[in-house]
Amino acid sequence: MSQQTEFIAPAKPVIGEEEIEAAVRVLRSGMVVQGPEVAAFEAEFGELIGGGRHCVAVNSGTSALLLALHALEIGPGDEVIVPSFTFAATANAVSLVGATPVFADVEPDTFNLDPDSVAAAIGPDTAAIMPVHLYGHPAAMTRINELAERHSLAVLEDAAQAHGATLGGVQVGALGDMACFSFYPTKNMHSLEGGMVVTPDEQAARRIRLLRNQGMEKRYANEIAGYNVRLTDVAAAIGRVQLRKLAGWNESRQANAAKLNAGLSGGTFGLRTPHVADGATHVYHQYTVRVPGGNRDALQAHLTENKVGSAVYYPTPVHRLAPFASTPDDGLDVTMRLAEEVLSLPVHPSLTDADLDRVIGAVQSFEPEN
Questions:
Q1: I want to staple 78 with a disulfide (CB 3.0 to 4.6 A). Which of 99, 130, 286, 304 is the partner?
Q2: Are 338 and 111 in contact (CB under 8 A)?
Q3: CATH topology for 17-241?
Q4: pTM for this predicted structure
Q5: pLDDT tens track for 29-43
Q6: Distance between CA atoms of residues 317 and 291, nearest Å
Q7: Nearest by Cα to 140 from 161, 109, 164
Q8: Fold designation for 246-364
C-alpha cells in the first residue's frame, strides 16, 4: 500500500524502544509494584507541575478522581458542579463517592466550563467545582477560583487531557486545590494505563496514598478502609520515559495545529478552528473543530472515504447518558449544540507534513449539502 492511500489515524499511541526497554528492565528487577519507579515517577511529575505539589500515582485517571474526592471529604449529601460536555468519568467519580453531579454549561469557544453557568448552579449543598481542561485547553480558572473562594468550595481540576498546558504561566494541575491526570495510551503522554493525583497538602497526599493501597502505608498496618488502585512499576517506568518526551510532543502538536489552522481557517462552509484564550497554552490533546449547519456527520463520512480518521468527542452529553438521564437539558444549550457540531481531526506527533496536507485537502474538498 502506498503512503498516499494509507489511513491516517485520528490518534496514535507512541510506544518506542525506550519504553520497551524500561518495561523489560523493571520486569527483570523483580520489583514490579509500588517500588522505586513509582516513587521516581511521582517526584518527576511533581517537578513538571511545580509549586512544591505532592503527586500520588494510581492505576487510572478515574481512580485519581475518586481518591481526590475522598480526600476532599466529598460524599453523600454533597453536590459537585461538573461539565456535561466531557467524558463520563468526571461525573462517574462524583456519583461513586455518593455525591451528586450538577451539570453546568460550557463556553462555545474553549469548550470548558462557563463560569456564569457555574455561578447559576451553586446551591446550599454545593461542595466543589470540577472543571475539565478539555482537549488540552485550560478552563477559565481565575473566575472559577473566585467563585469557589466566595462560596467556600473546593476546586478539583480534571486535567486528564492537558499534560503540560498552562494558564498565566502556571501549569495545569497547580491551578486548583487538587488535580487529577490520566495516562491512558492516547493522552499526550501515557504509562499504558495510569493516573496521578496532585495536591499542595501533605496530609491529603498521605490520605490518598492510604486509599490507593488498602488503607496502609506499612504492610498489615491498615489505618483506614482503602482500595487497591496502585500503579505498577512497569507502568511508572514507561511513564517516566514518556514524561521526558512530553514537551517535545506538545510542541509537535502545537506545530501541527498551527498548520491545520492556516489551512482550514476561513473555510467555505463555516468550519471553526480551535480557539486559544488569552494567557492560555493549548497542548492539543485533540484538535477539535466546529462544523455548523448539520454537516458534521457528512464531513466525517467524507474524511473516512478519503482515508482520514476523525472522531466525535463527545456525541452524547453526560447528562443524557443512562446514569444521569433524569437531568433536564435546561441551561445546557451550548453543550447540546456542541455535541452536534464538534469533530476532532488528527493532530498527534506521529503525523508528517504530507499527512497534514492530506487532512487539510480532504476537509477543503468537502461539499456540504446544507
A1: 99
A2: yes
A3: Aspartate Aminotransferase; domain 2 (3.40.640)
A4: 0.96
A5: 988 987 899 999 999
A6: 17
A7: 109
A8: Aspartate Aminotransferase, domain 1 (3.90.1150)
